[in-house]
Amino acid sequence: MKYYHLEAYGLAVVGVLHAWGSFAAGQYVKMVEASPTSRGSDHFVKRFGLEVEITPSVKTNNDGTLMDPQPISKEEYTIKLLITKSQTASVRQEEMARTTGQRYKASLLDNFISWLRLYNMERECTTKQRINGGIYCTAWKKTWKSLKESVERKELYVYPKTSINAQVYFPEIVGFYSLIWNRYDNPDLYLGELSTEEHSFYPKAEEHSFTPEAQLTESALSDVAIEFLQHSYPKQKVTLHFDNDATQVPPEIFEEIGKKGLDLSLSEDGHYKMDCSQLDAFMAKLGTSDNLLELTMKHAGQKFVTLLAEQSFVRQHDRCGLLIEKSTRAGEWVMGSSLLKAYTAIVDTRNKMVRFRSVHKVKGRSTRDM
């Protein structure tokens, strides 16, 4: 079996670490909708963060920014990762590392399949838990000034729920992560390697069957042949960005979508949209010929990813939006969390690999439940 390889650095811990805590298999963190500020309902594409709780609680202004407390407190704020135990989780006592008032700084990954933007954040971890065989930082302390700076740097989101930027968390905490699409239309981050057995207890898993995992090396991601809009684009660069809902395509290809006579119009925020009452007929029309909006990736002639058109649409009231955006440069494709509707991603930063487990729907579902 081949894997997607990663470059990684080990976790450096400074200070005296000791104490006892619980070991829990099968735990995950919800990736909730996240935004640095409030935004209008016309925005189709979601951004996701890892759900956290901040104590003491913080208040936000009407635009979703932090509201300064009166007077400004000098006490530290605790940011705690909200971890949910799955149905198969077992709990036992095992020695684990916990800081005792001393802080450590975790080293950063240089490259997490190129889909992590590093913010050079010095994280102040106060609690670590041993979960599913790995050690994960689950709580931090910050002053009000540091908290506000994290929001300004988009490392921490406070709207509509409090969450941390997954691209900050992943590089600093080495271990296994499994990213999976849940039945509530959001991705979840499972702490550890998600086995097929565990997957069967996960929400929505009963509606899917599994095929062998996709195979590709990291170097091959810079030399991918992509089929889209009934065209083949050789030697393309592919990165992964699971905190964003949309697939990003090169700017010139994004413009080409609007010229294909697909009854799509541009929304105010620059996304393609259509009336949902026309969607069923639209999908039926696509199904009678080569699917213009189906995206396929190949390396060395071997197909390793296929994203169907139905997996790129989102329903918002009586309108449907296409989860496709412009990337920043020609030849660059960024796969977002909508890819998790077709594949479960299993990431091991310690052994420098990522695997994709293909997920196929067994039962029919309506759009936006897809």
Automatic annotation (TrEMBL):
Xref: InterPro entries: Peptidase_aspartic_dom_sf
Top-level division of the source organism's lineage: Eukaryota
Name recorded for this polypeptide: Uncharacterized protein
The species this protein was found in: Albugo candida
